[in-house]
Amino acid sequence: MTWKAEEPTLSHNSDSFGIPASTPLSLPAKPLQVPPEIHNLVCETCWHTFFSPDSFHTAWASQYEPIFSESAHFSYITLTWGQIQQTTCHWCTLLCREVKMFQDIYENTTQTPSKKRKFQVGLRFAQESELDDTVTLLLVIDDTWKTVFQIHTTENDPAARFIRDREVFWDIDSPESYNLIKKRIDECSRHDRCPQPRHQGVHLPTRVIDCADEGQPRLFVGLGAEGNYVALSYVWGENQPNCTKSSNLDSYTEAIPLDNIPKTILDAITVTRKLGLRFLWVDALCILQDSREDKAREIAQMQRIFHDAYVTVIAACARKVSDGFLHDRRATIAGWDGTLLPFRCPDGGIGTMQLQSLRIAPKEPVDERAWCLEERALSPRRLIYATHTLLYECQTSHDNINGAPSFIELCDAEDIPRLPDNVFLQLGTVDLDNRTSLKAWCDILETYTLRALTKPRDRLVALSGIVEQFHRVWPQSRYLAGLWEHQLPATLLWFTRGKVERRHREGHRYRAPSWSWASMDGGIFNGVMRCEVWQRDEEVVDGELVLDVILQPAVWDPVVVGSEEGHLFDPQTDPVDDCKRGGRIGDVMPDAIESVPGDVHLALVKLLQQAGDFVLHGLVLIPSQSRGEWDERVFRRVGWFSAPFRRSANTKAWLDSRRQRIMIV
To answer: Which superkingdom (predicted)?
Structure first.
């Protein structure tokens, strides 16, 4: 976690927290009735400074004060650097580590501080937000270096009454784990934004795994039967030779040999049974993998399968299906030990707290796969078996199964790509301009486009289940190769994120028109006369967009294959001279790595006012093959441009130009 707020300036005569730096702190008597194992955590000097009753309670009470309140902090001067280094005190050891980082970053030196140097340390506890009672500790060194630590304690510690957060939950296959899962699902049923689990059951998918007999799972053919089931979302990562085929379907309805079931699926069977459920859906065993007809029929049902699941198990940590996900997490988090310190309880007691630096979330294998995003978003309740712990996620919450901080930077529930609430609550349609639904679509799209597909032609297909749900939100609108008609023309202005990725090439299988983000790989950020798209079995086979636009010629210079950006110039001027005069038209961000001619056309889509200046945004086009009556007015998109109005005297003339009707394919 990064502390972004500026702290009050430190004066030479007083510290920035309201306590004079030159005033000696009172040294209370040696703490009484402190267990030896706690007393030995810090040195005598620390017991007389930060960990004395008055000092600690001053810092603790600061969590209830405004974040910028000068009187809401405790501050003191440390021992000399030489003295700090000689102690085995937990707090002094932490300070040594922080001072070294402070010197490296702010003082730009790796040299050891002078043995006689002292440091001013400011401390305060703070709540994450008004709505979150998670408490953190802010450490400030010499009014410059700022570090935020998360704090937690154990359930049986005296400090547990005052510190909400607990250690990372690692025993994810224990009875406690399944009790916590059931508790979270029960709490979820009372969330206003979450659908209630249908305890009477739903229509089962065509086939599910019957897990009633632990030693002999089998395929169960639903045929209209009802019940509750678990769905599994995972990464194949390798071939599954024993998946269900036409040749073994009959025998698998009798029993599926345990030796034929990969570890990840076996673990999912274990979770299903321990949650008291009977049925499990897994694509490799519940879809005939050698039948195109069965695949097409079942894939068309995917959105219903995950939408209706009692809970979806996400094997986030498993890179391949043979890995499994129920292993003990102790080895994973062994190196995450924080700093154990005394905690002065507000009621006069004493316990311990663990300080932990915020960590960066590891990239989970499922977070790299496009299909897995759809499965996650479509599910009302998710159990995420992450690398370090087990998380619970629904429309309302996203946190560890025991409510503990993960010590890994998790996003808020609001930032998780998810469907609008009315999809699950069946609240009907919403206004086309509803910002919540628009944000949900944009969040999903931006996350989805960063993910990989084994078959690039599935770029639109792998999102079709989510699109079907948004059709319920916006039934008046048409979905056109990745764009919603009611959001045009603004959504034509998508542009690439990060490195320019390779788009489909001539001779490669067609998957989308050039004006759609689906025509290229890689992540994106997110008046029309006519837009038509032709599809076959969820795949786009052709598409054309007809616009009435202001169209202007331009020169893209320099055109460098693989470059992140380029510049646009008026074709009547020399680019070199024009660039020297600072009079270029604007900048272009290419869609893909490809050869593009220098002469391009700019289609103005939107005029925006930004910081007092007007900025033109639009599409960079090159001629494409003509289509009948359209002759030379058929183009394809190759990039996105931005042209500040102030950069060219010719820009004003653009707005007065006659609109032209063009086609983009």
So the answer is: Eukaryota
The CA-atom distances, in angstroms, between 217 and each of 220, 226, 251, 259, 313 are: 9, 19, 12, 11, 18
Q: Quick one: which of 590, 572, 597, 559 has its CA closest to 649?
A: 572
Residue 32 burial class via C-beta count within 10 angstroms: exposed 0-12, middle 13-18, buried 19 and up: exposed
Instruction: Name the residue with higher pLDDT: 326 or 71.
Output: 326
E-strand stretches of 176-319: 202-203, 207-210, 218-221, 226-227, 229-233, 279-281, 311-314
Residues 6+ apart with CB under 8 A from 424: 194, 195, 307, 380, 395
Which has the minimum average pLDDT: 16-20, 49-53, 494-498? Answer: 16-20
3-class secondary structure, 13: coil
Per-residue DSSP letter, 261: S
CA 470 vs. chain centroid, Å, equals 21
Residues 6+ apart with CB under 8 A from 528: 485, 488, 489, 545, 546, 547
Rounded CA separation 356/353 (Å): 10
Q: Residue 254: count other Cβ atoms within 10 Å of its Cβ.
A: 9
* Rounded CA separation 195/185 (Å): 11
Give the span between the Cα atoms of 282 and 263, in whole angstroms: 13
| Per-residue pLDDT band at 629 (split at 50, 70, 90) | low
The pair of three-digit structure tokens given for residue 560, joined into one six-digit string:
């460098």
Tokens matching residue 5: 């707020």
Return the structure tokens found at 523.
Answer: 């992540």
Contact yes or no for 616/645 (Cβ under 8 A): yes
**Which candidate, 497, 467, 500, places its Cα nearest to that of 482?**
467
8 A C-beta contact, residue 518 and residue 540: yes
Q: Where are the alpha helices (DSSP H) in 412-523?
A: 421-425, 435-448, 464-473
Q: Which of 439, 463, 630 is nearest to 547 (CA)?
A: 630
Give the Cα separation of 542 and 137 in Å (integer). 58
Q: What is residue 550's three-state secondary structure?
A: strand
Backbone conformation region of residue 630, classed left if phi is above 0, alpha if psi is from -120 to 50, else beta: alpha
Rounded to whole angstroms, how far apart are CA atoms 406 and 392?
12
**Better-predicted residue by pLDDT, 64 or 216:** 216
State the DSSP H helix or E strand holding residue 147, giving kind and residue range, or none if neither: strand 145-152
- Using DSSP's 3-state secondary structure scheme, residue 408 falls into strand
Q: What is the pLDDT of residues 561-582, one digit of tens each?
A: 555 677 887 777 665 555 544 4
**What is the C-alpha to C-alpha distance for residues 252 and 606, in angstroms, rounded to an integer?**
59
Q: How far is CA 134 from CA 130, 150, 405, 466, in A?
A: 10, 8, 8, 34
Is residue 219 over pLDDT 90? yes
Beta-carbon contacts of 345 under 8 Å, excluding residues fewer than 6 positions away, are 158, 159, 161, 162, 351
DSSP 412: P
For residue 544, give both structure tokens: 């054309």
Q: Do β-strands 145-152 and 226-227 pair in parallel, antiparallel, or remain unpaired?
A: unpaired
Q: Which helix (H) or strand (E) holds 61?
A: helix 53-61
